[in-house]
Amino acid sequence: MANLRDILIKPYITEKTTSMMADNKYTFIVPLTANKIEIRQAVEQIFKVRVLDVNTLRVMGKTKRMGKNAGKRPDFKKAIVKLAPGERIEFFEGV
Q: Rounded to an integer, what distance in angstroms lies between the CA atom of residue 33 and that of residue 52?
């Protein structure tokens, strides 16, 4: 990827990911082509924190129906980033 800001599309905020923030784990939606090394570099440089671990998983889009028409939501990739003890991302604190 050319730009590090293109790797972190948006934060992924749910009830489960909010409870994971207590363990210093933050979740982002990233492009399907992003790898763990690129994700680690992007988080470290954008938020100025130290990353211990990166876990990724691919989420398959759900099939949805509108009457007789069927469609599919797009697939996406989640990255769960574990930070070093004492590190925080202030961007998430207001959530």
A: 21
Residues 29, 18, 41, 52: is their CA dihedral positive or negative? negative
Number of H helices, E strands in the chain: 2, 6
* Helices assigned H by DSSP within the chain: 15-20, 36-47
Question: What is the pTM for the complete model shown?
Answer: 0.86
**Tokens, residue 7:** 């790797």
User: Which amino acid does the sequence have at 34?
Assistant: A
- Would you list the domain boundaries of the chain? 4-84
Per-residue model confidence as pLDDT tens digits over 11-32: 999 999 999 999 999 999 999 9
pLDDT digits (tens, 9 = 90+) for 58-79: 999 999 999 999 999 999 999 9
Distance of CA 56 to the CA centre of its chain: 8
CATH number of the domain located at residue range(s) 4-84 in this protein: 3.30.70.330
